[in-house]
Amino acid sequence: MAATLRPETIYGVTNMWINPDADYVLALVDGEKWIVSKATVIKLIDQLRDVKVLEEFKGAKLIGKKCWNPVRKEYIYVLPAYFIDPETATGVVMSVPSHAPYDYLALRDLKRNPEVLRKFNIDPKVLEEIKPISIISVEGFGEHPAIEVVEKLGVRDQNDPKAEEATKEVYRREYHMGVMKDNCGPYAGMKVSEIKDKLIEDFKRERIADILWDPADVVICRCTTRCHVKILKDQWFLRFSDEEWKNKVREHLRNMRIIPEEAREAFEYTINWLKDKPCARRTGLGTPLPWDPDWIVETLSDSVIYMAYYTIAKHINKYKIPAEKLTDEVFDYIFLNKGNVDEIAARAGLDKDLLEDMKKEFEYWYPVDLRVSAKELVYNHLTFFLFHHVAIFRPEHWPRAIGVNGMIMVEGRKMSKRLGNFITINELLTKYGADVARFALAYCGEGLEDPDWRFKEVEAIKRHLEAFYNMATSLSEIKLMEEDDMDKWLRSRLQRHIRDTIEHLENLRTRSAIQSGFFEILADIRWYVRRKGGYGPAYVDAIETIVKLMAPIIPHLAEEIWEKWGREGFISLSKYPEYRVEYVNERIELREEYIKRVYGDIKEIIRVVKIEKPKKLILFVAPKWKYIVYNEAIKDKENLIKRVMAIPEVREKGVKAVNFVKQLLKLGVEDKILTQDEEYETLISAIDFLKKEFKLEVQVIKAEFSENPKAEKALPMKPGIFIK
């Protein structure tokens, strides 16, 4: 009895796979003879099947025999496959080499290693009888998608990690784009994505297929044993299969914000495949099912609207309201605005004002603005969260946004008790303190990627925060210089960091927010201090901006700095930084970026040429005609040579101008540049800075006034550099 998650592929089965070393049984299952792995027996019994084992044997006994394909109505060979896990499904697997990369690879591996078949007294020539059967048409693929992808990716064998990549690509494209071919009987022309349920029901009705429930992946219990699905008699289910309910959830999802946006597809996928789910169990902790108290509400079904309870928990705890008084109509009034408050209060024995306060509290906090949890919960808890809110609450109280994040790793490995690499909160607080831990967790990952906690990086973060604390608390000790263009530059840069940090935080990109709101501002501050030669008013503004931007991430440190500054109240209640367009000065930023670039080029030349004690630096600003050409290139590169050669100042340069145009077309141009005079003035203003940094004489010359070869090579925004 073969098992598959893709029942449509039975039309393309060429052979059956059995693990020769695994234990199998011949058993009567509900009166029908089945051959399955021994590990399948307990699964069948726990799924309420009547099972009687008639015989046990190794899989090797079946190798080389033939079995009947009831759909194609033909006998096919049973072949050895050591990759078969007898604990997965039934331990018997159909081979569909045209559409399953692993099956094609397994057959190819047998052809390459015929001794495996001879070991079971099978003539390797039987493989020549096995031809791939193409049953699904997919745009962009030929007859055999699995074979094409295997060859394209260069998959060596079935143990090659790229085999999994090939499988995902084929399965995904066939599911979303595949159409059944003419050799698929009544399903010819149907989309693969729409056929599964119909095909299963048809096969069950014809008694050529049945259902076995199995986890989608290996699940290990805390007791270390492998889990399987058990069906309980008289079980209660949530009808997630109800299309009307699904459609309401789909419609709401379209109007919701999902962060990051790429997680939306996972919600849509889950809503589509979700079927009726058992919602109660017999043992363990939990809430008794109100209408059948012998059952306990299953955890994931019980914890999807608890945030509504949180809104009124303080009233219940403060006034010690007993459970008996929290009747259905009390909750209906608070959460659904149903019923007459005077009558409900009288029947429940509760104060009317208290009920009204509880209702106001709920309506103040609801709807849920943002629910954040791990990506593993998209496929259950978070989707249930949507289903239940849509089913129970009024539309104005349905969730507005869901954020999804990865699962924490430690030193590149998933954190778990089994691996012994888990870290407790107490350990974090003792070793690092709350804010270092918060900063490190926010910085070690974002979006759907799994954040990776690495101790060396955390130690580095601790040093960064200690250094910043010292910077911030020593502001009163520094002597401020007068404001100049460097202060305008730093304030302009701050606006961009403020804008970017806010955008990152609103999209839960915590790592990017720290990068822009902490590290990038500090980098700008370091450059500012070097260029200015001290501290100005913008320095104080920048430090305060960092403290405020990072306050949500390092609240304790931020509050302590705020207090050290002698500010009133809490920083958390002060106004958060706002983007101020009036402080943005693009020309000053462009000039300073130019100086940074020139500084870096000088440093690199000295390093490469290995000039030990340079004495003089001459910077050549490009000739004016090159700026004319460059600006024309910024406007449009079409017919550039023809256009610029129509300009007298350029035309007189002849071949030089043509070669310069070709150079620009090859290298590309920037969106904005300084004028020749702006470049010249910017370099003149930076002479003292360059003298101090490189300890040499500095001269700036316009290229028109020099015969030096470096003057000839000067370009707009890239001066010629001569060092001696």
Care to describe what's here?
A 4-stranded mixed β-sheet has the order 5-6-1-7, with no helix packed on it. A 3-stranded antiparallel β-sheet has the order 3-2-4, with helices on one face. The protein has a 3-stranded parallel β-sheet with strand order 11-17-16, with helices on one face. The chain is of the alpha/beta class and 724 residues long. 47% of the residues lie in helices and 13% in strands. The chain folds into 4 domains: 7-205, Valyl/Leucyl/Isoleucyl-tRNA synthetase, editing domain (Isoleucyl-tRNA Synthetase, domain 2); 243-405, HUPs (Rossmann fold, 3-Layer(aba) Sandwich); 413-584, Isoleucyl-tRNA Synthetase, Domain 1, CATH 1.10.730.10; 612-723, no CATH class. The protein contains 30 helices and 23 strands. The chain is globular, with a radius of gyration of 36 Å. β14 (288-289) and β15 (292-297) form a beta hairpin.
Characteristic terms for this protein:
724 residues, alpha/beta, Isoleucyl-tRNA Synthetase, domain 2, Rossmann fold, Isoleucyl-tRNA Synthetase, Domain 1, 4 domains, 4-stranded mixed β-sheet, 3-stranded antiparallel β-sheet, 30 helices
The CATH homologous superfamily of the largest domain? Valyl/Leucyl/Isoleucyl-tRNA synthetase, editing domain
> What's the total number of strands?
23
Low-confidence stretches: none
Give the N-to-C terminal Cα separation: 84 Å
In percent, how helical is the residue content? 40-55%
CATH class of the largest domain: Alpha Beta
SS field, number of helical segments: 30
Mean pLDDT: 94
Taken from the alpha-carbon principal axes, the silhouette is globular
> How many domains, in number, for the residues?
4
The strand line-up of the biggest sheet is: 5-6-1-7
Specify the structural class.
Answer: alpha/beta
Q: What is the annotated CATH architecture of the largest domain?
A: Alpha-Beta Complex
Rg, Å, rounded: 36 Å
Main beta-sheet annotation: 4 strands, mixed
The CATH topology of the largest domain turns out to be Isoleucyl-tRNA Synthetase, domain 2
Strand residues, percent:
5-15%
